[in-house]
Structures are given as structure tokens and as C-alpha cells.
What we know:
mainly alpha, 3 helices
Amino acid sequence: MGLLAKLTGWKGFAAAGIAGAAMTAAGVVAWNAHGDSRFREGMERTKLEAAANARQIEAQYRRQEQDMVADYARRLEEANEAIRLSNAERDLAAGAAGSLRDAIAVQRARAAQAAARAGLSEQAATRAWDVLKACTDEYAALARDADAAINALRPGDAWAKSAASSGSSNR
Length: 171
């Protein structure tokens, strides 16, 4: 019997079914192998993109941190400059007050000498200078108290300004 005779009938249908099933299975295996390779390529691409995004985010945070440090250093330098100017003005005012007290003392001494030469009461001649000296001493004490209050407020003021500018720059 020939091949054609053997493939006719139920044996032929069975052979064709087996061959069809084998070809279908081979197609499914090939399709899955192709899909698996595409899936692995996609996973690799996703991992590479995620790593690139992570590096980009890290660089962005590093830049933000550097900007914050630079801003803080700038504000700290401005605060230190303001303190230096305030201290210089205070020292200048203290020097002027010292000169004023010296001038008052000299004028009081002159008034006392003139009163002694004229035979007048030293107390009457120097009373105005004594009142002026008391006033300047009171103003000097007031200035010291004001300086102490300013120095006590500086840390809180610096913190408040820092918090306010940090809050506004993060929006």
C-alpha cells in the first residue's frame, strides 16, 4: 500500500490532526519565545529608564540642596553684615556720647572755676551742667538696655526670617 492509501481514512485524519497539533504547539512555543524575549527587552528598558529617572531626581535634589545651602550662607552673611553695621553704629554713638560727656565735664569745670573767681556758689553755676550730665547718663543707660534687648531678639529674628524665606522659596 502506498502512502496515499495509508493516509486516507481515519488514520489520515489522525495524522493530519497530530501534524496540525504539532505545528500549533511549535507556533505557540515560537510565539512565547518571541514574547519572552520582547518582555525581557521591555523589562531591561524599563529598568534603565527607572535608573536614569532616579539619577535625574537625585541630581535635582542635590541641586536644590546646594541652592538651599547657598541661600542660607547668603542670608547668614547678610545677617552678619547687618550685625556688624549695627555694632559699628552703636560704637560710633557710644564714642559720640563719650565725647559729649567729656565736653560736659570740661564745661562744668569751667563753670565751677568761673563761679569760684566770681565768688558765686559752685552748685548754682554748675547745676545746668549736672542736669545735662544726668540726662546723658540716663540716655546712655537707656541705650545699653536697648542694645541688650536687640541682642536678645537677634536669634529669634534671624530664625523667623530664615523660616519665612525658606517657606516662601519652597512654594
